[in-house]
Design brief:
InterPro entries: Gate_dom. The chain is an all-alpha fold. The protein is 81% helix and 0% strand.
């Protein structure tokens, strides 16, 4: 009986997916026939966002992540951090690498790293699903350079949104951990082996080095082959990301053309694609606090486009998306609440006083999104800052893990 119900549920899900994809395809065809000029403009807008923001900001991190994962660095770091991340976040120690990667490179870099670890057999299906959701963040380039500086004309507000975005994402991951702790945890043979090694090892550092050597030996590729494979995988991921962004830009353009006001256009754009959703939110005539809260919610949810990008990476290897969707909703809710609660103290502390009228007078909101977006030189200027930020976040997780082991681990 249960098997019949499971088969029926699978058929229903497949049918719903087929209908949804068919509806999107029909909408795209209708868009091209009904308004070819607007469709071309929207696709160009999506391509511009991808080329000038996403591609240069994420490609180097995807290549770097693949090299470090194959070389065992991330797994060695995970060995040191496992006691801390298990108890604090309910995630394997490898989260000490994947979380900082997601926080600095943005999606879907964390999903790509999670898929690699799952293929290597280092994490279970459930751990991969939860890790991909907890490490799913928007890039600092988007929040500080694009939203804060470009869309709003207030760089300090972009930094404020970034702090709230990170805090809300970590809170969402911890909440999901507490909601799922009642489930019985299954221990794999590899985990038992690791635990036995941990007990016999004279120190966790030696175990970390041993695990790094094991991963590197199992991979077996030379540096040239590894670099070539990493670049190929990263470019393929970027192409998939760009394709999703282009399609959703067209869909948003068509739907928005039938809506009379920006207030109605924002929920559609925010629900579907984060870059265009953030741009739509900055055009709303609201108080700075409420506008920033809506921005935080849209950035935390990150759009259906980002969800499908992650599914394109995780779905083919058998990782489901239920916990990922729950994490996205929690992230958006927490970001909205945190922004409203922390608005006054953070603005007073940082001196950020955004005023919509002043921004409007400066002409920022009257420009097209292409004119506001940063160029390649501006994006690459902060690339070095992103690398340093990644290193600082990894170091912070390592310090927290060592502190936990010395003072709190029993």
């Amino acid at each position: 009986m249960n098997r019949d119900n499971s088969v029926t549920g699978s058929h229903s899900l497949a049918l719903a997916t087929t209908i949804g994809l068919g509806a999107i395809a029909a909408l795209l065809v209708f868009s091209i026939v009904y308004a070819p000029a607007a469709t071309f403009q929207a696709s160009g807008q999506g391509l511009t966002i991808w080329w000038r923001i996403v591609f240069p900001a994420m490609l180097p991190f995807l290549v770097l992540s693949q090299i470090l994962l194959a070389g065992g660095f991330a797994q060695g770091l995970g060995t040191l951090l496992d006691p801390f991340t298990r108890k604090a976040l309910g995630l394997p120690g490898i989260a000490g690498w994947v979380l900082p990667l997601g926080m600095t490179a943005g999606f879907p870099a964390a999903a790509e790293a999670t898929a690699t670890l799952y293929k290597q057999g280092k994490i279970s299906t459930l751990e991969a699903e939860k890790l991909a959701g907890a490490a799913h963040f928007c890039s600092p380039v988007l929040l500080i350079v694009v939203v804060g500086t470009g869309f709003l004309g207030v760089p300090g507000l972009g930094l404020l949104l970034l702090v709230v975005h990170w805090a809300a994402g970590l809170a969402a991951g911890m909440t999901l951990h507490f909601l799922t702790t009642s489930k019985q945890k299954k221990t794999t043979t590899k985990e038992l082996k690791t635990q036995e090694q941990s007990k016999r090892a004279s120190s966790r550092l030696k175990l970390a080095i041993r695990n790094m050597e094991e991963v590197r030996r199992e991979d077996g590729r030379g540096f040239g082959k590894l670099l070539g494979d990493s670049v190929t995988s990263a470019v393929q991921t970027m192409m998939v990301t760009g394709g999703f962004m282009l399609i959703f830009a067209v869909v948003i353009q068509v739907i928005s053309s039938f809506l009379p006001t920006e207030i109605l256009a924002f929920p559609i754009a925010g629900l579907l694609e984060v870059h265009l959703g953030a741009y739509s939110a900055t055009k709303l005539d609201l108080t700075p606090a409420l506008q920033s809260a809506l921005l935080g919610a849209a950035l935390g949810w990150s759009g259906l486009c980002a969800t499908l990008q992650v599914r394109a990476i995780l779905g083919p290897i058998g990782i489901k998306g239920r916990y990922f969707l729950i994490n996205r909703m929690l992230h958006g809710i927490y970001a909205y609440i945190f922004t409203l609660l922390l608005w006054k103290p953070l603005t007073l502390l940082t001196g950020v006083l955004p005023v919509n009228k002043e921004i409007e007078r400066s002409g920022v909101l009257t420009k097209s999104i292409e004119a506001i977006l940063p160029n390649w030189n501006q994006v690459m200027a902060i690339f070095e800052w992103q690398v340093w930020l990644l290193g600082l976040l990894v170091g912070l997780f390592l310090l927290l893990g060592l502190f936990w082991r010395r003072h709190m681990d029993t």
